Amino acid sequence: MAKPDYYSSLGVQRGASADELKKAYRKQAMQFHPDRNPGDAKAEAKFKEINEAYDVLKDDQKRAAYDRFGHAAFEQGGGGGGNPFGGGFEAGGGLGDIFDQMFGDFMGGQRRGGRTRAGNDLHVKAEIDLTEAFAGTKVTMRVPTRVSCEACGGTGSEGRERQNDTCPACNGSGKVRAQQGFFVIERSCVTCGGAGRVIRNPCRICGGQGTVQRERTLPVGIPPGVEDGTRIRMTGEGEAGPQGAPPGDLYIHVAIRPHPIFAREGAHIVCPLPLRMTQAALGCEIDVPVIDGTKARVKIPAGTMNDEQIRLRGKGFSVLRSAARGDMYLKVRVETPQNLSKRQRELLEEFETEAHNNRSSGSPEHEGFFAKVREFFDGGRE
Ligand SMILES: [Zn+2]
Ligand SMILES: [Zn+2]
């Protein structure tokens, strides 16, 4: 089945503004939210579809990639983009995040209530070079975390036998009520952490928590084309849950160090190209570096101007989950020579005399401007 176009999923025009996108997204998300359509598989599918569409379109760079390459920009497998360690990618926030942002506590409470507390999510930063972001890389992360206690097998009970008593503080409900002014508020029980049960005979190593503090070393695959700020989620690699509860997730936040030569603009690479005045005037061939570590020979035509851009197709950055590559733009900067040698000075003086005495000096803009200047003064005199 062909995937629907992201814009039509949200019911907006291709040129829609960020505001229009957000409005359309909110409207549809409210309509198709699973909490409002319990058991409706169609609504759920639609909800996923609009979330996926909005995740891409709200991000300028991803939107640009989508506009250019369509769904191919985000497909798995192309260009070796998959994460070998089973991590999932997120275009800046999964469903959970969207729920939390939009519906806050009022639905979050319902959704999470009554379940066993899972381990904490962990967030770590992975700093990589631009060339590593281009080619993809493997980094080894050292993550301070909590792992399952070996002594009690994560149960928190001495001798591994799970023996719980009903929590005396909350009588097993996991919640306690407290009077605060006129109101009675209900909060999670501190004694049992909301579980409703306490351990009869806590493990001496972990004190009944079922987890111990440890530093884990974890290899993380970073795919080609990642952007600064990309978040990689590794499901189940967060902290171990207390007393055998499921683990949290690990989020790797990718930060890309600035490169001394190349600047990235989405899928494109921009690189300055300073040229000697004479190279620009006479034309030349020059080798330039490419982000993939190769060289490209570029022909600079005679008469190249300052600020001119030279485009090298397909020599730009990699696109996440795609075999496509952007372009490279060389931005010409013509450098006026300074600290001339005696000989250089003589040659340029000769050049200048020639240009001054000749009607076509080779600098039409200069001639045109000073022709207007003469007219300006002549006109003013009458
Ligand atoms: Zn233990
Ligand atoms: Zn309790």
What's the layout of helices and strands?
Layout: H1 6-10, H2 18-32, H3 41-57, H4 60-69, E1 88-90, H5 95-112, E2 122-128, H6 130-135, E3 137-148, E4 164-166, E5 175-180, E6 183-188, E7 197-199, E8 211-222, E9 231-234, E10 250-256, E11 263-265, E12 268-276, H7 277-282, E13 284-289, E14 295-300, E15 309-312, E16 328-335, H8 342-357, H9 364-381
Parallel strand pairs: 2-10, 12-16
Antiparallel strand pairs: 1-9, 3-8, 4-7, 5-6, 9-10, 11-12, 13-14, 15-16
Helix pairs in contact: 2-3
One zinc ion (ZN) is lined by residues 167, 169-170, 174, 189, 191-192, 196.
The stretches of 5 or more residues where confidence is low (pLDDT under 50) are: 76-115
Instruction: Specify the number of helices.
Output: 9
Q: Which geometry do the CA atoms define?
A: elongated
Strand content: 25-35%
Order of strands, widest sheet: 1-9-10-2
> What number is the mean pLDDT?
84
Cα separation of the termini: 79 Å
Largest sheet: 4 strands, mixed
Radius of gyration, Cα only, in angstroms?
32 Å
The percent of residues in helical segments reads: 25-40%
Q: What order do the helices and strands follow?
A: HHHHEHEHEEEEEEEEEEHEEEEHH
Based on secondary structure, the structural category is alpha+beta
* Strand elements, count: 16
Bound molecules: zinc ion
Q: How would you describe what is shown here?
A:
With 382 residues, this protein is an alpha+beta fold. The chain contains 9 helices and 16 strands. The strands form 6 sheets. Strands 1-9-10-2 form a 4-stranded mixed β-sheet. It has a 4-stranded mixed β-sheet with strand order 11-12-16-15. A hairpin with a 2-residue loop joins strand 11 and strand 12 (268-276). Helix 2 runs antiparallel to helix 3 (41-57). The protein binds zinc ion (2 copies). One zinc ion is lined by residues 149, 151-152, 156, 203, 205-206, 210. Residues 167, 169-170, 174, 189, 191-192, 196 line the site of one zinc ion.
